[in-house]
What we know:
Residues 1-64 form the NFACT RNA-binding domain. It comes from Angiostrongylus cantonensis (Rat lungworm). The protein is of the alpha+beta class. It has one domain (3-67). 18% of the residues lie in helices and 26% in strands. It contains 2 helices and 4 strands, in the order ββαββα. It has helices at 22-31, 64-67; strands at residues 3-7, 14-19, 37-40, 48-52. Strand 3 and strand 4 form a beta hairpin. The model has no long low-confidence stretch (mean pLDDT 82).
Amino acid sequence: MVIKFTSTVVDPPALLYMGVDKYENEELIKYGWPEDVWFHVDKVSSAHVYLRLPEGMTIDTIPQALVNLSIPTFPFY
């Protein structure tokens, strides 16, 4: 199950999608948008996160608070 997370550290809020294994990562690739930004999660094997940029934001203007965001850890992972 791909996880959808809304971050409110920026305004407007940003959407993030996370896959925890190769199957979920394939789903992210399949349904991702060209302007989504891809991250690999530190210290979590195979975890990928896609940031859907809010309108007006570019890869060059992503706030550091959003880049360093801590994604909640769910007990079933």
